[in-house]
Amino acid sequence: MKKLIASLALAVAVFAPAAWAQDTAASAPAAAAAVATAASEAAPAAAAASAPADAASAAAAPAPVPNKGDTAWMMVSTLLVIMMTVPGLALFYGGLVRSKNMLSVLMQVMVAFSLIVVLWVIYGYSFAFTEGNKFIGGTDRILMKGIWDNVAGSFANGATFSKGVVIPEIVFAAFQATFAGITACLIVGAFAERIKFSAVLLFLALWFTFSYLPIAHMVWFWMGPDAYTAAGVVDEMNSKAGMIWQWGALDFAGGTVVHINAAMAGLVGAFMVGKRIGYGKEAFTPHSLTLTMVGASLLWVGWFGFNAGSALEANGFAALAFINTFVATAAAVLAWCVGEALLKGKASMLGAASGAVAGLVAITPAAGNVGIGGALIIGAVAGFACLWGVNGLKKLLGADDSLDVFGVHGVGGIVGALLTGVFNSPSLGGPSAVGDWVTAAMIAPDAYSIGAQVWTQLKAVLVTIVWSGVVSLIAYKIVDLVIGLRVSEDAEREGLDISSHGETAYHK
């Protein structure tokens, strides 16, 4: 643990002085990056400070003021995502492991979430959501400097997806912190029951820095709608956005950034850490499906903040994301239960809970980008696809992915990302995407190309898979060399609750 603390301290010591030393006066900090690509007004995308506007126009128009309703909705959405993670994800994962490892999973989720929130405030938000290059942001918000505008004597504002509509940037930063936190926590399910606690934290610090932040910047960072003041500045503004945003990929709330990103890290971890003792010979049955069901239910409720909050406003697109999150999840539960009944003769509580998560994952990139009919189909397809992911695909891969992180989040995320390109089409009931940010005009139905959009979605998926996979492999190797990845055989047999934390979840 001493080595872990020293490593983290060294990382902060390297990042902070270098960041403060840079001259940031020439670049405008991000006002608020959204939660999807800007190819759709509903699609969350990074929103940065607006490009310099014409002086006369700026003088004539009053500065926009945050709407209290939008601000309140974003604060509630932030709380809902925290609930998704602690206790939602913690209980969902905890119920799936053996009782001797229950507390260790709760610890990993809670402490990992806290670690990422701290790193987010120190440097994460800045590197994800300020102007830098097409792969990574800059240092304008290191330690959240500039959130309070000394010149204006007020908090800085962040853009939404409507021209002239803003929310406090500090609220957006908090909302995005919860996304980074839950993404890291998703990974721990892949190597549950045999990894060192210190190894989890050091790996997540490295992975967050070199995988989550670049992917978030590439997918979600752009200059905001108010930067597009005239046709002559469009190319310049587009060139400042993240690479995947420039491609026009749609990701409303994190199909690539959150789910595929985490799933690849989990899959690599399952291979690197190795299989649990007795895997394939002993039954590793969940110790409490009751807790798993409670956790899945909390995830479902909290996911409304995750998806609908990604609209950044309390508007029609938030409502669309809300209803789509509702119906896609229900469809996935039914699909998984039907598939399970056909394969095994019975539908299970574990299957229903897993189906709910599969539907939530798949609708994430599509939530505000597809119509209700599209959401139903995406949920149903995800239910069947993820059932195959945790059964057929898992056997093909041969990895001990303890809690099926890749089978659900990887497969579900890929299904959702690709089908977003299909059902965003207005001919299939989708809202289409913004084709001109100067006028905020949507792509006309006869001009929308499903094939072209699906190809763009596929490129975003492939970049995320490769980037996260390579970074994860290197990060796991570094951790293994520094402190080791796996607990001893005796500690694993005893259970991580006692061997790693000196406590137990249950007293006999």
UniProtKB/TrEMBL annotation:
Residue ranges annotated for the Ammonium transporter AmtB-like domain, each copy included: 72-506
Annotated Pfam families: Ammonium_transp
Cell compartments where the protein resides: Cell membrane; Membrane
Superkingdom assignment: Bacteria
Keywords: Ammonia transport, Membrane, Signal, Transmembrane, Transmembrane helix, Transport
InterPro entries per record: Ammonium/urea_transptr, Ammonium_transpt, Ammonium_transpt_CS, NH4_transpt_AmtB-like_dom
The UniProt record lists the keyword Disulfide bond: no
Similarity field: Belongs to the ammonia transporter channel (TC 1.A.11.2) family.
Name by which UniProt lists this protein: Ammonium transporter
Natural source organism: Roseateles violae
